[in-house]
Design the sequence.
């Protein structure tokens, strides 16, 4: 597949954890213009984009992806040749309590963005239309739950078990439908669990780091045996770029980190690193607290990523142990310097977080 030149990209949700890494990485590694459309909910963090300030190739616009006319205006004004849709409500616990909010953003928002992109794309001259791409960012959770063996492939049926994963599966289906029905050149990227700097402290790894530093309980669902496949956010964003440049339209690509760990193993690894850097005499593992399991909690996820690796030549570069150690060090440094992003007490006040794991 010939590599597409990247000239002007509309990134939605570009102030979020993964989206902001994609924005930073794209500005560092290409000459593309990046237009960042983000609603700036609790999950949006402009502090993650400080290095982009003043860059003439970067434009931030606060807005909602459900605003079709705004999206179409941005596409036209900046003559975009790509859309990468990171915008989403993403926390499973929140989706259980607020399923309609997830439906609004993840399903309706994606549909509005697809329709805006379709209206823009069909008016382009043939050469620019051929070069246009819409990349829908998805998750391994759309496939449902695995047993102790096997991996999901791109042809595995979707069987979502939470309102979050159901909303993402629906968005994927609409992206596929816009390709099949209208010819809009869409591609879907499904990722395993991302981790790294700037992730919101409601997610497992940053929450456990901050709680351990504060000496607070480390709540783990069930017996901690649920397994996730982990992928550093830098590696995932590199995969998205590869898909954007070389991916086949109408296709889906699994992006897995080939690193499976149980939730309990993750928490124990965090405790070991925190203990080596802490002045507390008590091991952090004593803070582990097993709590009632999440409703519909998927047991295991694992992705077969040979299609992406073989056809597009992508591979991970960050080993999990190295990436986790660097991530813990990043959060510890930010916590020490009272960065609002990682202040546990502040986020508990803002988000009402007490027991997430």
Sequence:
């Amino acid at each position: 597949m010939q590599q597409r030149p990247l000239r002007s990209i509309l990134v939605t949700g570009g102030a979020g954890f993964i989206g902001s890494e994609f924005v930073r990485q794209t500005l560092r590694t290409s000459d593309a213009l990046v237009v960042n459309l983000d609603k700036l909910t609790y999950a949006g963090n402009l502090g993650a984009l400080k290095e982009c300030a003043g860059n003439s190739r970067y434009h931030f616009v606060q807005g909602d992806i459900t605003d079709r006319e705004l999206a179409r205006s941005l596409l036209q004004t900046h003559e975009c040749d790509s859309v990468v849709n990171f915008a989403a409500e993403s926390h499973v616990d929140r989706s259980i309590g607020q399923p309609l909010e997830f439906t609004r953003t993840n399903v309706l928002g994606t549909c509005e963005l697809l329709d805006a992109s379709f209206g823009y794309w069909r008016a382009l001259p043939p050469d620019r239309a051929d070069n246009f791409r819409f990349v829908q960012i998805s998750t391994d959770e759309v496939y449902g739950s695995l047993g102790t063996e096997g991996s999901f492939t791109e042809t595995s049926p979707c069987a979502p078990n939470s309102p979050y994963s159901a909303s993402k599966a629906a968005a994927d289906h609409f992206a596929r439908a816009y390709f099949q029905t209208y010819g809009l050149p869409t591609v879907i990227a499904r990722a395993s669990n991302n981790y790294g700097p700037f992730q919101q402290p409601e997610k497992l790894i940053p929450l456990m780091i901050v709680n351990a530093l504060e000496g607070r309980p480390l709540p783990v669902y069930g017996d901690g045996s649920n397994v996730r496949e982990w992928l550093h956010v830098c590696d995932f964003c590199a995969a998205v770029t590869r898909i954007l440049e070389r991916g086949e339209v109408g296709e889906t690509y699994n992006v897995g980190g080939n690193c499976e760990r149980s939730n309990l193993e993750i928490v124990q690894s965090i405790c070991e690193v925190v203990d080596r850097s802490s002045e507390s005499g008590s091991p952090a593992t004593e803070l582990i607290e097993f709590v009632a399991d999440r409703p519909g909690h998927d047991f295991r996820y694992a992705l077969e990523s040979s299609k992406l690796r073989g056809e597009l030549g992508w591979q991970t570069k960050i080993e999990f142990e190295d990436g986790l150690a660097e991530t813990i060090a990043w959060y510890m440094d930010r916590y020490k310097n009272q960065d609002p992003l990682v202040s546990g007490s502040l986020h508990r006040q803002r988000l009402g977080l007490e027991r997430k794991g």
User: Anything to note?
Assistant: The first strand starts at residue 8 and ends at 12.
